[in-house]
Amino acid sequence: MAREDDLKLVQGVGITKTFGGVQALSDVDFEVEKGTIVGLIGPNGAGKTTLFNIVAGAIAPSSGVVRFQGEDITGWSAYKVCRRGIARTFQVTRPFGEMTCLENVAVGVVNRQPGCRRSQWTVLAAECLEAVGLKDLAATEARHLNVVQKKKLEIARALATRPELLMLDEVLGGLNSQEIQEAVAFIQGLRDQRRLTILWIEHVMGAIMQATEKVIVLDQGKILTTGTPTEVVNDPRVIHAYLGD
Amino acid sequence: MFAIASMNGIVIGVIYALSALGVSLVVGIMNVVNFAHGEFYILAGYFSYLFATALGMNLVAAMTLAVAIVFVFGLLVEYTLIRPTYGDDLYSLILTFILSIVLQNAYLLIFGPYPNKPPGWVRGATDVFGLFMYGNQRLAALVAGTCVIVFVFAMIKLTWFGRIIRATSQDRGMAELNGVNTTRLNMLSFGLGCALAAAAGVILAPVFPVTPTAGVPVALTAFVVVVLGGMGSLRGCIVGGLALGLVENLGAAYLSTGYKHVFGFIILILVLAIRPSGLFGHKEA
Amino acid sequence: MSQGASILKSNRKNFLYGAGLAAFAVLPWTLGAYNQHVLIVCLFYTMMAASWNLIAGYTGQISFGHAAFAGIGAYVSGILAVKAGLNPWVGVAAGTVAAAFFGLLVGLLCLRMGGIYLSLTTLGFSEILHIIINNEYEITRGTMGLQVPGLTTSYSKISYFYIFLVGAVITLTIVYKLVHSNVGLNFRAVQNDERAASALGVDVVRTRLLAFTVSSALAGMAGALFGHYMMLITPHIPSLDQQFLVLSMTVIGGLGSFVGPVIGAFCLEILSEYIRAWGEYHVLVFGLVALVVARFAPKGLVGIYKAWRGKKRPETA
After folding, report:
1. Residue B136: is it exposed, middle or buried by C-beta count within 10 angstroms (0-12/13-18/19+)?
2. Neighboring chains of B (3 or more beta-carbon pairs < 8 A)
3. Any residues with CB less than 8 A from the CB of A128 and at least 6 apart, and which?
4. Can you give the residue range of the structural domain that contains C196?
5. How many CB atoms are closer than 10 A to CB C278?
6. What confidence tens digit (pLDDT) does each residue in B103-132 have?
7. Fewer CB in a 10 Å sphere around the end CB: N or C, chain B?
8. Best mutation site among C185, C210, C255 for testing chain A: the one with the most A CBs within 10 Å?
9. Which residues have CB under 8 Å from A178's CB, separation 6+?
10. Claim to verify: residue A69 and residue A101 sit in the same structural domain
11. CA distance linking residue C297 with residue C299, whole number of Å
């Protein structure tokens, strides 16, 4: 029993969220096993980003429990959750526009290692930028970046916090097919080389099919089904949810 | 003493509420706090004094014209100063704060430091409930203030314009998608906010002296009422305004006159410490 | 540029700064008493503007209570000196600590909500302090002003100049170190996008609280020093007019830049001495200039200069 629980890096039980009169999430149970890439899909408005926000501490659930490595982190503030080992990207990127790319990433570094000196974080931040291919833009202010570069910066920043769980929110939007392939390979690399666990909201189904080991499907705030990519894609309920009547 | 203090509290409370409505509307729709709110209030007072006394206009005409002019001035300010800052709350804060000081000094220069008082509408006093005599002008102010508030609520609840206002302050993006011209709406709301300040100004001008800096405590109180009632809540303004008026006047009567305005601040502290979203405000989602 | 060239350039920059500072340090010997006074006031406003810039320019919180904290520093120091016979130097330290303490309290109260709430709370705090000072006449002597001893045994403008010079250097050094430290990264991150900052592990409230407390302490120090210099502490120090001047200086000089507040303080103070000849117009003139600058050149004089340089040499953008 204990071993089984060890494998669950993050787990949500009975997560419910109501905004005013709107029920964004109802009784959502999910788990993500350590060292896997798990996809989170569902039609628009299904509550995917809301779930991310709850796990990441940006908002608190109306009820339910979030556990990370067995520890109850429900309702923790975002910065505490990050320091505990969960990093996330935003669907619409949020770079620190007036800071350079290096400084953007450095924010992640110094909050992971508070006593860090400038000489150290410069190096560490540069490494993260290099990993995503933004090394040459280190001294450029983030507001001058294009959309794809901003997405890469977002990931580099998240990586700088040395997370155990990386939550990606629609990072492939706006990429061409070659870029998508590179991104998928990169994300798989994160799992294989860096031993990251990844929870990934995505609309690009090809990538989900290719990279994930398990897919969770949300529809109108409820879990529709969970399974392997093949199972999920062939599930008539999932098809129905996306296409409607 | 309790009766008179309460009466004062209610009268001033209604005016606080009216003034706070202007702030709340603008905050709800544009997320902008107009620091020069008090200066618009006083400007209307000055205009009504000018028109009624210097030009000898009919009182009602003078007041209406004063409010109208301040409304237009508000539109102008929105267009030149606020609009370019939309999205950045900080800059509108800085700009309206500077505007407030500029206006105060401009008034000092133009109108001089001595208090001006437009003529009262009514004279004498009335016996209230057989308990005490109360100045008719203040009673008139109470009635006028209440009428304007009722008018505003009616407009918000019943008219098409009011519906747009409610929709936009709830969800700006949605409103835009539905075809609301939010830029024009901003301008009109800001003007309306200033007009409400102006209305409060002309109503109270015969009661309290109009001086260049008399707008500052007015703005401050409006802000406290808005925080107390809840940002963006119009009902909150009414309850908050009356509550503040009563607390201030009862406090001044029973505790200390010198610290009258401190009560408002104490309320502000308590609200921020215990329930920052105010009485009727929405908690951050 | 190459390693060697950039070290040379930075050495040359440091040398220029050092020489400039040295030249400035001997300036008062060449001036008459009135101009010495103007320099001292410039240094006072430099301290105030630089510390206000720390929260407003670097963390994006517009506080209207800055002058109030200066007032706390001044009154605490002055009252202790007069009522308890405390040495004014110790008084200045006490005033700084008191300002820091109140800064912490006010910060704790309103920094969770931030933004508009902070501005309103600090505004209210400032007004309240004003009322208390006027009401507690017995202790503060209200508008008559509290007479306090000076910092030096024999009054000499030159010695006060050096005291304020040291004070300004301390203030600027603290601001500089803070902004260029890891904490400074957090400041700017929070200012740019606080949601993203918290997702990266930045404790937004604590970051702002730190900036706010340090900034209030520095204002308190400046106020205490000023009170003992003028040897008279009046409610004018913690007034909204003063707050307005500090804000204008920072905005016109360049909000969010390091030298902006210094430039703004010196320019505006010297300018106001000349305009003073015209009478009461000078606040209005400042206000209009500040309004125009804030509206059309939000980054102030420093911003204008940088934009001009950027146009001249596009490759160093």
Report:
1. middle
2. A, C
3. A105, A108, A109, A156, A157, A159, A160
4. 30-237
5. 9
6. 999 998 888 888 877 777 777 777 767 667
7. N
8. C185
9. none
10. no
11. 5
Closest CA to B38 of B270, B220, B188, B177: B220
Chain B residue with Cα closest to A17: B285
Q: Specify whether A79 is located in the same domain as A177.
A: yes
C80 pLDDT more than 80? yes
Q: Tell me the chain A residues in contact with residue C203 when contact means C-beta distances shorter than 8 Å.
A: 77, 79
d(CA C309, CA A101): 23
3-state secondary structure of A17: strand
Partner B contacted by A19 (CB < 8 A):
yes
Say whether both A156 and A183 belong to one domain: no
Contacts 24+ apart (CB under 8 A), B86-90: B86/B30, B86/B186, B89/B31, B89/B32, B89/B33, B89/C115, B89/C116, B90/C60, B90/C62, B90/C115
What is the torsional sign of CA B39, B44, B45, B49?
Answer: positive
Strands A22-33 and A8-19, how do they pair?
antiparallel
Q: Copy the structure tokens of residue C60.
A: 């994006």
One domain for residues A137 and A154:
yes
**What is the DSSP secondary structure assignment for residue A114, as one 8-state letter?**
T
Q: For residue A10, what are the β-bridge partners?
A: A32, A68
What's the burial of B76, exposed, middle or buried (CB within 10 Å: 0-12/13-18/19+)? middle
Residue type, C258: F
CB proximity A56 to C under 8 Å = yes
Structure tokens at B116: 């001006």
Q: For C264-316, how does the pLDDT look when each residue is reduced to its tens digit (9 = 90+)?
A: 999 888 888 877 766 667 788 888 888 888 888 888 888 888 888 877 655 44
Q: What is the pTM of this model?
A: 0.86
**What does the block give as tokens for C292?**
């125009």
